[in-house]
Automatic annotation (TrEMBL):
Gene3D superfamilies: Medium-chain alcohol dehydrogenases, catalytic domain (3.90.180.10), NAD(P)-binding Rossmann-like Domain (3.40.50.720). This is L-iditol 2-dehydrogenase. The lineage of its organism: Bacteria, Pseudomonadati, Bacteroidota, Bacteroidia, Bacteroidales. The keyword Zinc applies. Residues 10-342 form the Enoyl reductase (ER) domain. Keywords: Metal-binding, Oxidoreductase, Zinc. InterPro entries: ADH-like_C, ADH-like_N, ADH_Zn_CS, ER, GroES-like_sf, NAD(P)-bd_dom_sf, Zn_alcohol_dh. PANTHER family: L-THREONINE 3-DEHYDROGENASE (PTHR43401). The keyword Oxidoreductase applies. It comes from the Bacteria.
């Protein structure tokens, strides 16, 4: 089968490898579509992902496909289901490490619920936390929505961790796929005023189309006039970039007892200027999804998709075939892509 390999930092290739064998708790999925993660996948290719320094590795963690075979004890997948979150965690004797391995012609999903019932859902038994979010999706969820749901459910799953509730006034910094998902899903969720911050006016315009009430540049929100007019009125400020400089820029805007929310992987030694913040606030570091919340989010997303309130077309700006993977990443690197999908 085909799989996307990073043989060394800065290089990509498509390689023929063995199709994975499934065990009694697994299902085999034939991949229909994958989506590039502008952050994680790009960092893995560049050799800049924290803690990953072993190459070659098999790339990808956002995918959707059709179940073509199931193991004896599998109950929660059946042949013909559309499934998301498949990966290949072990390339065995093929000498390839796993960068999740989801950009493969065939991937494996695990029946987490059965593993849990039988006491096998532990790291000691070889169970990754990712197994919990390997799920089938309702029939009406098409490949585009299914694969983009890998991003959406991570974001919506963070709402509980971030103490977000309907009616709250929120500022989001960063209008990449994550920041825009906070805007789009936040409005569907019932957040009150949702403002967005980004350096590029073109991205701010996209955010407004997603439902953002106001769009600002970093320079605008840093002026004494803006800070005074905001009057510490934001219930929550969300860093959708993952930089301490971003957090420091919004500390003067959060209300007393409000929430400062960091989404994504931040440096190990961030520095926050507490003199800019109210003397009481909550700092939430969401460096990895809470898997149970991420899984539960799919039910809400599927309903919004069914009702026509949520469409992948709002996010997908580029489409390629898997053989064009290098062209796709070149487009990401040039900053042209909001969300890019590739078909097998």
């Amino acid at each position: 089968m085909k799989t996307v390999i990073v043989p060394a930092p800065g290089k990509i290739e498509i390689r023929q490898v063995e199709t994975p064998a499934i065990n009694t708790y697994q299902a085999l999925v034939k991949t229909e579509m994958v989506a590039l993660c502008n952050a994680t996948d790009s960092k893995l290719i560049a050799g800049k992902f924290p803690g990953v320094d072993t190459y070659p590795l098999a790339l990808g963690h956002e995918n959707a496909g059709i179940v073509v075979a199931v193991g004896e004890k599998v109950r929660n997948f059946k042949v013909g289901d559309r499934a998301i979150g498949g990966l290949i965690s072990d390339f065995g004797a093929q000498g390839i490490d796993s960068g999740w391995g989801g950009f493969s012609e065939y991937v494996v999903v695990n029946d987490f619920e059965v593993l849990k019932e039988e006491g096998l859902a532990t790291p000691e038994q070889g169970c990754w936390d990712s197994f919990e979010i390997q799920n089938s999706v309702p029939e009406h969820v098409q490949p585009e929505e299914a694969v983009i749901s890998c991003t959406w459910r991570e974001v919506l799953g963070a709402f509980k961790d971030f103490n977000l509730a309907p009616g709250k006034k929120v500022m989001v910094v960063g209008s990449g796929p994550v920041g825009l998902s906070f805007v789009k899903l936040g409005k569907l969720f019932g957040l009150g005023q949702v403002d967005i911050v980004d350096m590029l006016p073109s991205k701010l315009e996209v955010a407004r189309k997603m439902g953002a009430d106001n769009g600002y540049t970093p320079a605008e929100i840093s002026t004494p006039e803006f800070i005074a007019s905001a009057g510490r009125s934001y219930d929550a400020v969300i860093d959708a970039v993952g930089l301490d400089v971003v957090v420091n820029s919004v500390l003067p805007l959060v209300k007393m007892g409000g929430d400062v929310c960091v989404y994504g992987v931040m440096t190990k030694n961030p520095t926050f200027d507490l003199s800019k913040a109210p003397y009481n606030f909550d700092l939430h570091m969401h460096q990895w999804p809470t898997r149970s919340e991420e899984k539960a989010a799919m039910t809400t997303l599927a309903q919004w998709i069914k009702e026509g309130k949520l469409s992948a077309n709002d996010f997908i700006t580029h489409r390629f075939k898997i053989e064009e993977i290098e062209e796709a990443f070149a487009a990401v690197k040039r900053g042209e892509v909001l969300k890019c999908v590739l078909t097998f």
